Request: fold
Amino acid sequence: MLYLSLKTLHILSMLLLFGTGLGSAFYKWMADRSGNLAHIAVTNRHVVLADWLFTTPTVIFQPISGLAMASLAGYSLRSDWIAISLALYVFAGACWLPVVWLQIRMQRLSAEALAQQTALPAAYWRMARCWFWLGLPAFTAMLLVVALMVFKHIPGATL
Reply:
């Protein structure tokens, strides 16, 4: 029963992590493309809030619940698929941490521009490009983690 409860929470947490990440990325990207400063500022504020409320807790819960399930199921924590999953997770996190900093900074820049009724500075758009390009490998890594989690197998490898 403990394993199934953990598995359910792990899957729901993963869905929340992916849904929040993909949704935030989509809405922020669309807001930036709109050029509407008020829309950009509000969306940036919501993206940062969503990261604190949803992404951060799931980022913490995922490895804890995953490792607990692997242990309960009798998987060796030295299994290739677990080691690769953890490495990809750390890689995604290494991309995500600068993204969080960029989001907070872009939130401040857009709020200041809105308050002063000025255009967004060039620094905002540089950060937005970095934010986008850091998000792609992080999201790809997380897709691979989910595939490894589901299949517990690395194609072509003997586990």
User: Anything to note?
Assistant: The two ends are 27 Å apart (CA to CA).
